[in-house]
Amino acid sequence: MPTPDTAERRTVLIIATLAAFLTPFMGSAVNIALPSIAAEFALDAVSLSFVASSYLLATAIFLVPLGRCADIYGRKRVFTLGVTIFTVSALLSALAPSGLMLILFRFIEGIGSAMIYGTGIAMITSVFPPEERGRALGINVTAVYVGLSIGPLLGGYLTEFLTWRSIFLTNIPLGIYIVCQVRRHLAGEWADACGERFDIVGSVFYGAMLFAVVYGFSNLPDPAGIAAIVAGVALSVVFYAWETRTESPVLNVRLLSSNRAFAFSNLAALINYGATFAVGFLLSLYLQVVRGLDPGAAGLVLITQPVIQALFATPAGKLSDRVEPRYVASAGMGLTAVGLALLTLLTATTPMTYIIASLGLLGFGFALFSSPNTNAVMSSVDRSLYGLASGMLATMRTTGMMFSLAIATVTFALFIGSTQIGPEVQEPFMTSLQVAFSIFAALCTAGIFASLARGRVRK
Fold this sequence. Notes:
Number of helices: 17
Helix content: over 70%
CATH topology of the largest domain: Growth Hormone, Chain: A
Number of domains: 2
Distance between the termini: 36 Å
Strand content: under 5%
Largest sheet: none
CATH class of the largest domain: Mainly Alpha
């Protein structure tokens, strides 16, 4: 019979892991359905990218503020509300009557996702001791990759036989189940910063800053995009000034300057996700538009990367309990860079075995990077900052995803323009694909140095 502490750890791990599966499954399944969504709503290449990026934008804006809310008001409370919002918005997305409404409902879904991302890892870190934390986080990350693995495959067949709307409906039963399990089995609450004041002004500055920067990158090379980036930089200065003067900041910016491991681990996450997230988005279009595969067959190819990630994420997390995380994570970053470099050589006739091998290498590199990097971030801060650290790491991940999609969008705007992606624009599409993968490979190469620069996490 397990002790109460053991039972509580197991319950938290199961609930957080199920939620960790939910959000990436949705994202990867929607990616495979994008051509069908574009056809139904007559969306051009740039508008189509907002179906994915609106969700990520909302997640990025709200992650840190809601992670801080969780530290103050309770991680379980915020987590439960997040799963509820995510589930309701999935239903609304399934019923969306237009592309604009789908983008709006995806934005709301992103808010729920922010509550889940900002609390799930913090809850696990709260109940597991340091010597078991890497394994537990590895299991959580494995669930993410299982979601990413099943998403393209199931999403492809759902789109093919039941339309893309069925993808959103599949998330609803699991969301309801998670909420019921939390209410029935999880009595504890974690609010290590209880009593501290929530920084509303700083949260507004933070959200406006991120929105301006991400919106700006998504609209390059348009002058409005450049203006938005400049505004975002100006807001970052205002945000920094406010956060260094307020008593209870939403983001302790001094933590970034005083905690080397925390700062560089987050930077490495930003670079890694910025260099890898759009791979699924781009290859989904490539396989269906250029190679003529149906959604189900394209999904079978795309699951290669997340399946490898799922297989090796937990062993990589265990390894980081024994070996300095920066060495394991940096090796993973290097392998990811090699996989991206291989994808720069794609042509309209590249053998499928080459594509699958490249995705397998990407998956292995990402597995070696992600769990150890997460362990490094969460082990580098005091427990009263677990929610903030979890939210900050998730913000780097989500902002990296946004930048990754923004780079893809910019290449589309430069080489394709505002037309629907189809066989008639195959040549400029392939050019944009190769340019995007070249940028991603260069970013990941630079990320190796950021990963090594974090120093030792264990003293």
